[in-house]
């Protein structure tokens, strides 16, 4: 994720919020992330990188 963040900043992309969810995250964890995202009214894109097991 650090490489993504660095590359994004190098080309002028603002990352207003970044969060990691543990592999065993439950619904409450996901709900908390969504609530946090809702605070960024001017955000236009949400990028989600997921890994399956």
UniProtKB/TrEMBL annotation:
It holds the Pfam family ANF_receptor. Residues 1-51 form the Receptor ligand binding region domain. Its main location: membrane. One of its GO terms (cellular component) is membrane. It is found in: Membrane. The keyword Transport does not apply. InterPro entries: ANF_lig-bd_rcpt, Peripla_BP_I. Keywords: Membrane, Transmembrane, Transmembrane helix. Signal peptide: none annotated. This is Receptor ligand binding region domain-containing protein. It comes from Euroglyphus maynei (Mayne's house dust mite). The lineage of its organism: Eukaryota, Metazoa, Ecdysozoa, Arthropoda, Chelicerata.
């Amino acid at each position: 994720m650090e490489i993504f963040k660095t590359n994004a900043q190098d080309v002028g992309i603002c990352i207003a919020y970044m969060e990691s969810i543990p592999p065993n995250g439950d619904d409450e964890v996901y709900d908390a992330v969504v609530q946090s995202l809702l605070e960024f009214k001017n955000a236009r894109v949400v990028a989600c990188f997921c890994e399956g097991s």
